[in-house]
Design brief:
By secondary structure, the chain is α/β, with parallel strands linked by helices. The protein has a single domain (about 5-275), classed as Spore Coat Polysaccharide Biosynthesis Protein SpsA, Chain A (Alpha-Beta Complex), CATH 3.90.550. It has helices at about 15-25, 45-50, 70-80, 105-110, 135-140, 220-230, 240-250, 265-275, and strands spanning about 5-10, 30-35, 55-60, 85-90, 95, 115-125, 145, 160-165, 170-175, 175-180, 185, 195, 200, 210-215, 255. The strands form 4 sheets. Strands 1, 2, 3, 4, 5, 6, 8, 11 and 14 form a 9-stranded mixed beta sheet that branches. Helix 1 (about 15-25) crosses helix 8 (about 265-275). The chain starts with a strand and ends in a 9-residue tail after the last helix.
Length: about 280
């Protein structure tokens, strides 16, 4: 029997969210659970239109407390526990990437015996873009850091989770869920959590061989300035623009097409959803 899978994402003023959803439909997810936390830029309206054409479960959410994402993940994990076999809890700038030799159904079937899969982050840089690109962001931002860079990018030790919602006890933080059983890597290996930071941040060097999160954390300089100016109740010490620029210095070292190879499929999905279809990368 086919494993049914959905992504779950909380958004606020995410103008690129249709591309994000189109990508995850293209790689094999059956549905998207989208929680809009007070968008004012047309994001909710665009999602409402797309939901007429694709399996998008759209919910309004108005929570400005520190634990807004944890609360949302707990509520909607429970609400959809009996509809989907697996739910991936990710952010709107995170793209699940698999090797060309592996499909999403194959990964989920291979790890069907574990309640949670830990997908490690891989930080991608700005690729030199000062303004937001007019092409798909998976094509624009296709440069990342080296996998093992002597600790220059500790963010790569963070993970995001694909869980069996029926085996989740609760969401502890946006990266980690308490489950009945043990977390596994996509390869099937065990996960050891950081002694310093705890669950959600791995102790071991990231294993990207059978799956990862391509995290478009920096995007353009415009987005870096916006990130630096944005305050979030769950982030007590937001990054400065200078620190983001420093991170970007060594986040454009290797071209990685593990997400951009899906661009034709993403454009097709965008046409189905009635979203804009940006041109091809130069």
């Amino acid at each position: 029997m086919k494993v049914t899978a959905a992504i779950c994402v909380v958004v606020k003023n995410e103008s690129r969210i249709l591309e994000h959803l189109a990508y995850h439909f293209a790689i094999g997810f059956d549905a998207a659970i989208v929680i809009d936390n007070g968008s004012t830029d047309g994001t909710f309206e665009a999602l409402s239109h797309a939901a007429k054409h694709r399996h998008i479960r759209l919910h309004r959410w108005g929570d400005d407390t520190k634990a807004f994402q944890i609360t949302a993940f707990n509520v909607f994990r429970h609400a959809y526990a009996w509809e989907f076999d697996r739910i991936a809890f990710i952010d709107a700038d995170e793209y699940i990437a698999l090797p060309a030799s592996l499909t999403l159904p194959q990964l989920l079937e291979a790890r069907s015996d574990c309640p949670a899969i830990a997908l490690p982050w891989h930080i991608f840089g700005s690729a030199g873009y000062e303004e937001d690109p007019k092409i798909l962001e998976i094509e624009a931002f296709r440069f990342r850091n080296e996998p093992f860079d002597d600790g220059r990018t500790p963010q790569n030790f963070h993970v995001k989770s694909i869980v069996d919602p029926k085996k989740v006890l609760r969401c502890i933080n946006p990266h980690y869920f308490e489950v009945r059983g043990e977390y596994r890597l996509p390869s099937g290996g065990s996960v050891r959590w950081s002694d310093t930071h705890g669950p959600g941040i791995a102790y071991q060097v990231p294993d990207y061989s059978l799956g990862k999160i391509n995290h478009l954390y920096l995007r353009s300089l415009t987005q870096m300035r916006l990130r630096a100016s944005r305050t979030r109740p769950d982030v007590p010490s937001p990054r400065t623009f200078e620190s983001l620029m420093q991170l970007d210095l060594h986040s454009n070292e290797v071209e990685d097409c593990s997400s951009s190879r899906w661009a034709p499929d993403v454009r097709r999905e965008l046409r189905i959803m009635g979203g804009a279809t940006p041109g091809a990368a130069p």
